[in-house]
Known about the structure:
This protein is mostly helical. The chain contains 8 helices and 3 strands, in the order ααβααααααββ.
Amino acid sequence: xxxxxxxxxxxxxxxxxxxxxxxxxxxxxxxxxxxxxxxxxxxxxxxxxxxxxxxxxxxxxxxxxxxxxxxxxxxxxxxxxxxxxxxxxxxxxxxxxxxxxxxxxxxxxxxxxxxxxxxxxxxxxxxxxxxxxxxxxxxxxxxxxxxxxxxxxxxxxxxxxxxxxxxxxxxxxxxxxxxxxxxxxxxxxxxxxxxxxxxxx
Length: 201
Ligand SMILES: [Zn+2]
């Protein structure tokens, strides 16, 4: 998928939002993914412990941060004045998120669809001159401050809405597979409610 979208982007260097193109593809992908899910009910990635889960997601955020750093240079920042999130930022953040989700899930439909969902809040809010008060926001914040908002929005979405769609854990006490374990790898049933054993980061 990635090379096609890069070609598309190169053919349409300005004014075209790659995200809109992705949106058109999404219907088709959603159908394929639904069919896939029927065959293979639920995507579940088993993490051996909460440390492994946190480590893998820390690596994911590091890569997303790198992409943010790279595509918030002075040149891109100039275009942000008109566009909000620029086509180049949108496309490369999308590719990075998709690639990082694939590293963990090895499911290309899941990665593609969820990368789109994750980037959507930014593309909906930061529409440049089409968004109310954008010029004021743009003039008030440095490019690094804007970058912080982009990165935080992405990370927050992954933590709140994405990573528990696929993550499951093995309780170190009873051995059951569960959607949640605490900081010492115990499921809810095995947690002692009176003790403070730490929680998910
Ligand atoms: Zn347990």
